[in-house]
Amino acid sequence: MPRMSNDAWLIQLLRHGALPDAGVAQELAAMLATRAPSIDDDGFVTRTLLTALDETWERGWQPTDVVHLARREATTGSVPLVVALIGEHARRSDAGFRAPDAWVEQLSELGALAPGDPFVVGSWHRAERRAPAEAWRIVLQLAGVLHTAVRLETLLPPPSRWGPRRSRAVADPARSDDRVLRRIRGLLAKAESTQFPDEAESLTAKAQELMTRHAVDAAILEADRPAEGHAVDTRRVHVRDPYVRAKMQLLAAVAEANDVRLVWYPGLGIANLVGVGSDVAAVELLFTSLLLQVAQALTAAERPLGRRSASRSFRRAFLLGYAHRIGERLQAARRRATAEAVAEHDVDLLPVLRSRQAAVEQRVTELFPHVRATRSRASVDAGGWYAGQEAAERADVGHRRSSLR
Questions:
Q1: Residue-wise pLDDT tens digits, 44-58
Q2: Domains in the chain: boundaries
Q3: Which of 34, 106, 344, 389: disulfide with 325, CB 3.0–4.6 Å?
Q4: How remote is the C-alpha of 378 from its chain's centroid?
Q5: pTM for the full model?
């Protein structure tokens, strides 16, 4: 019997194939399991998947984007495999010393910078202890996902555009931005864990005020150094099912309250944030916290139903109502903090804030020239909407953490 790597049909399948449905993948996986139960003896499958991964980088994808895509379009079981592949690609491309800082940060978050076995697929198969048919199914689905990934706007240069090896600067733990983000993170952690609605509301508002004061302080410094311009940053945020569109409304409310623009890809659950670097980082922090808080609030709203679960339309409307009210509350906190800062420093910030906004808008236009505004026209469950607004008004969170279902 010929070696698997010499089978032309398998080569075509792994390199170019997109499986039409899960049933076909299951049948092919069962057949492959009888012929190659060890999955990847000669490393061919690993090499092919690494090539497919490299092609996704060239289409604008970043490490955490690919993990999000694999979880969404393949299976959760494919995540350890794709993380291991990303790690092996990072080692072969010397990403730790050649990639942009934001790329290396993503690798670190994924745990993809540690040494690994170059025979990634075989090592993964042994570590996961999956049946050969199940392992082949995951491999086939992942290959299809990587090959069919659409082209995204390039926010970070792909490996083909990285420069030579360079020393990696050590982050300064005393940086002002880092200190502020740690304080914001601490406030939000308390808001997520408290059993008292008033305290949760106060902590979240304080986090927003701190974000605003930091942005205002930075704007004052920029007013003294107009020649330096504004450092506009971009970041991707991944939103999981269910209720992706409703959760995007929550992210949009947080972004708008902090002068950050949001552009998202319908159908992918991926949002692009564009704004001043510290603002973008703070928006992601606050959004992540609010997702936990709204999940707790929804659990509390459903509790009176007893064993009956609220409908999907109720949950979706709850999220939308929550997002709308949270946006109003954050805007109020922002106006209050801005007025206090302006009075304290006795300076006209309007010109520099307008200049900041213009720089952000220009960057959005450069990156997303074909972007268009969208508005949902779907009907909304009135009970869910008002329940969500009430929860946001009271910041009514429970002590249990639960995921939206």
A1: 999 999 999 999 999
A2: 4-154, 176-394
A3: 389
A4: 25
A5: 0.84
